[in-house]
Amino acid sequence: MGQNDGVENEKKLVGALNNKMLKRLTSYQQHFIKDIYKNVNGTDIVQAKKIGGAGYKPDVEIEVDGEKHYISVKKGSGNSVHQEKTEFFIHFCMTELDMSKTERDSLLLYLYGDGTLDGDSSPEERLKDQELIETYRNEINTVQKFLDRNKRSLIERFLIYGRKGTYNRKKADYLYHGDAKKGIWCPLNFDTIDYLVNQPNAKNSPLVIGPFSLQVWNRNLEGKTELEDRRHSIQIKWGTCKKDIEKINQYQAAKERERKSTAQQGHIIGNNSQGFENQVNLISIINNKRVSELPLAIKNIVKTMFPYVAMSERLHASKIKNNEVKPRISIEVKGEKVNITVFMGGGNSVHQEKIDCFINYCKDELGMTHEEEDSFLTIMFGDGTLDGRSTVEDRLKNTVEIKEHFSKQATIAQAFFDSNKEALIKRFLVYGKSGEQMNIKTDYIYYGTNVTGIIVPISSIVDYLNKKENSEAALLSLGSLTVQPWNRNLTGKMENEHKRYSLQVKWGRMKQDLSKIYMLDDSKNKGTSAGNWEEYELVSKLNRDIKRTGKLWKFIGTALNRSQLEDVYAVRVSKTVYSKLSEKKVLPKTDVYLVKGQIAHSILLDNNYWLDEDAIADLDVMPLPGSGISCKRPDSKHFTYIKLTQKSFMKLFNDPNMGAGISLFVNENDINLNSEVLNHWNTNEKEVLNRFSSYLISSGISSNEWTITNIKVCKIIKENAINNMREIIVRSQNIANGIFKGTGFYDEPYNANYIYINGALSKISIPNFSITTGSGRHKGIYTIIIKP
Question: In angstroms, what CA-CA distances link 706 with 99, 471, 564, 664, 701?
Fold first, then answer.
């Protein structure tokens, strides 16, 4: 469906709904409105209007009785569901999904398919489909891994938010596929995205995200002027859209049944309705929110779990529905998952299970003996039996009586608990009954509500409880944890009798203990960051050093000859800038630069001391000239200092014969391609041979052998062309600064004067470098690369 057809379809849908009484609509239209508005009446008036705009996902706004919903409308087959400029998409991927430069370059090479990163090529250089896939198979694999890693965020961008919706909170609530007369729809909520994220990748395209394919809007292989601009946009297609909407609705219904069942269980088991409601509230608050949108208490727990998360990152939270594992909530940021268990109030019950199930675990996993088993059962039932089948009168009244009457059994049972203390603590707090076998465990315990709370790593909790002395007053204990029957049913009520056959683990001083563990714990500021770690490390280190006394600031003060640094801050580059060399917007040499101005400390705190160009867009700060910093991983070897197209090479060196010499083939199978090389560089055999004649003469080769099909001649020319280029770079400070720093290619502060590696800053100097050619020469794509 073309763009104009889509707009017309949206207008017709609006016309069919707008200002109509619900009961006057067709049966399909009524069904649609009733599904969105659960409490709508037949006499209610439906308002509809066309909205949208470039960068947004909703096409139509529907309003009934003051309640608004936003609809994304599609029609036909082979649907294009998203389209945006490639540079905007790359910017999003690098700033919000931590796309590496290798992943970025791989995507651009595939999208343009001409050996360039900017699409600046002639139609003849553009590879056709199968040839494209074969040439860039490694790049496709690299990009696919990135897409797989960021499935959820990408699908949300394509379906719900678009390019601008995440920043303006303007998102689509529903997806409608059809026309004004008939259609099918689904909510665009977490369950829908969850379904799509978990779908296997389609096989209909080289780059896929579940059922979606990513491609160039139009590769313009024929070079039509009116289509050239489309080479610089990506397009997302969803060929199975209609079928998938049907499956999504089935999935939604199944999830709703699950939720109702889980809610019922949550209100029944242990009468923990308040705790269950607390979990639901937390999920609702966290799910699909950016860190910056969270309440302060929740924002702080997120920072503890994900220490290097940016404020712009979106979170996903879901209920863990298996009651046989310990964690209740899973929180995810960019593919990294953390599981938490939530508690609130006093006298917390942290674990409950059938006694026979626990006994089986102890015998199978911990080697419980018959004597230990009998002793445990004796004090749990407290009636002189091993199965609890006794009269009410035989049941001892309290823990003191049981421990006095069955002192030997109490000692044996406690000794078993002591010898298996860590394993039992982990069962009760980390894994639950089945978590260890299913590899599902608690990572953190959160104590509190959405208003206030504390979060502590489970490893610190286990360590603390394992070292803590047992409670003498408890029937059985593991540090602060006490173990007893769920209910001993001393009054003999029928409805409570089954509770005698379950054990319950309580943590009465949970709040006090967690507060103490939190204060003692030194891991809450530790962690790892995915993606551009060095950039995050540098920015956050500098901005956290409020007094500006650390070694990094001392270096900066000396390098920039500045004694006052309190009003200077570090900022990460998050946008493309104009390159005077390539005459395109590209990512510059600088990864981080400094700005001068006043930034409120609250802003730094809200952003976890992480600032990028989006974060400072509305702040009164000015870049410091000469402060650009390039960040490199210490183990990074596979990068390029610069990749020169013919156009940029000529602009920098103005020597077509040197460019041709470097590009020559020097093996027997390809030597006949050298005439094409010379044609590409707009030179000829005579000029190239004349340019390098002195080297050929000194090598002793007879002039009769001088030809570009002579391998020995070509090797001499190539070797000396590379040496000539190297000498020019080393000799010319301007060219060297341009290549390695970006000086002259970018405006300040986007040329890099310093490098950050291994936690230290230093000045950039001319490094050891090599000169080689790109991989596209056989396809007529000639580039010259300078790399380590």
Answer: 48, 95, 65, 14, 8
Distance, CA of 396 to CA of 505 (rounded, Å): 20
For 154-170, letters b (16+ CB in 10 Å) and e give: bbbbbbbbbbebbeeeb
DSSP SS3 for 710: coil
Q: Render pLDDT for 619-631 as a digit per residue (tens, 0 to 9).
A: 889 999 999 999 8
Question: Parallel, antiparallel, or unpaired for β 45-50 and 348-354?
Answer: unpaired
User: pLDDT tens digits for 303-329?
Assistant: 788 877 776 788 999 999 888 899 989
Asked whether residue 271 carries a pLDDT value surpassing 50, the answer given is: no
Phi, psi at 689, each rounded to 5°: -65, -40
User: In terms of Cα–Cα distance, which of 379, 406, 522 is closest to 464?
Assistant: 522
CA distance 19 to 384: 77
- Cα angle for residues 521, 525, 528 (degrees, 5° grid): 125
Q: In angstroms, rounded to a whole number, what is the distance separating the alpha carbons of residues 347 and 754? A: 57
CB 247 within 8 A of CB 186: no
Q: Which two tokens stand for residue 596?
A: 């001068």
How far CA 271 is from CA of 184, 349, 383, 505, in Å, comes to 41, 11, 26, 15
Residue 247 and residue 304: Cα distance in Å, rounded? Answer: 37
From CA 121, how far away is CA 124, in angstroms rounded? 8
Q: Report yes or no: 13 and 181 within 8 Å, Cβ to Cβ.
A: no
Q: Are residues 592 and 570 in contact, defined by beta-carbon separation less than 8 angstroms?
A: yes
Instruction: Give residue for tokens 């939530």.
Output: 342
Residues constituting the chain: 788
- pTM for the complete prediction? 0.44
594 backbone dihedrals φ, ψ, rounded to 5°: -105, 145
| Pairing of β 592-597 and β 621-623 | antiparallel
**Cα separation of 270 and 445, whole Å?**
19
CB 92 within 8 A of CB 103: no
Backbone angles phi, psi at 259, to 5 degrees: -60, -45
295 Rama sector, left if φ>0, alpha if ψ -120 to 50, beta otherwise: beta
